[in-house]
Write a structure and sequence with these properties.
Low-confidence stretches: none
Number of helices: 6
Strand content: 25-35%
Structural class: alpha/beta
Mean pLDDT: 91
Shape: globular
Helix content: 25-40%
Order of helices and strands: EHHEEEHEEEEEHEHEEEH
Largest sheet: 9 strands, mixed
Length: 208
């Protein structure tokens, strides 16, 4: 699991606990998720390249910096939408694409139903957002869609991940770093992460 980068600190551990707790209310769940997403955005940004330019302060001219590459955020619908706002606040110039994938409950394989992304993926840093990396099927399919459109500098961001999903994504897309706040134990027979936090989309949007 060389591609795996676990983003951890005491505040994240506390917030992951909020997400796990079945008694956590929707608004509390959203706030905890939002805080973890900020931490993920900051950690991922450590790998961004900068372009240097001159900026004039009230006193003198000094060095300034901006991002060398355009950043494209691609949430996997619908749960991935929950991570977008935090990343946008940290990277205001980011563009946002969308990939719609749903899991066949019998085969556990992803089925695509929507795709829309900005142009120039080949020159952009592309961050796929999905709170849960479970089987890895949806994430792998999302990256394949993006690569087919020219993306070549991709990153995965998730709240929690299962070893099975990390293994599959690493095998099928070895060039993609995986950032997560927690590596959980395993998947159950239905493909859900254990101990997990339930369905992130349902708990975020109140559709339980």
């Amino acid at each position: 699991m060389d591609n795996l980068k676990i983003v951890s600190n005491p505040l994240i551990s506390r917030d992951i606990t909020y997400l796990r707790n079945k008694e956590t209310k929707e608004y509390q769940f959203r706030l905890a998720l939002r805080r973890i997403a900020y931490a993920l955005a900051i950690e991922i940004s450590n790998e961004f390249e900068l372009r240097e330019f001159e900026v004039e302060t009230p006193l003198e001219i000094t060095k300034g910096y901006n991002l060398k590459k355009q950043v494209v955020l691609v949430p996997v619908l619908r749960a991935g939408l929950s991570l977008v706002n935090s990343f946008i606040e940290m990277i205001p110039n980011a563009k946002v694409g969308h990939i719609g994938l749903q899991r066949d409950e019998k085969t556990l394989k992803p089925i695509d139903y929507y795709y829309k992304a900005p142009k120039n993926l080949d020159t952009s840093k592309v961050i796929v957002l999905d709170p849960m990396l479970a089987t890895g099927g949806s994430a792998s399919a999302a990256f394949q869609f993006l690569k087919d459109k020219g993306a070549n500098d991709c990153v995965m961001a998730s709240l929690i991940a299962a070893p099975e999903g990390v293994k599959r994504l690493t095998k099928e897309h070895p060039d993609v770093p995986i950032y997560t706040a927690m590596l959980d134990r395993e998947l159950n027979e239905n493909g859900y992460i254990l101990p997990g936090l339930g369905d992130a989309g349902d708990r975020t949007f109140g559709t339980l």
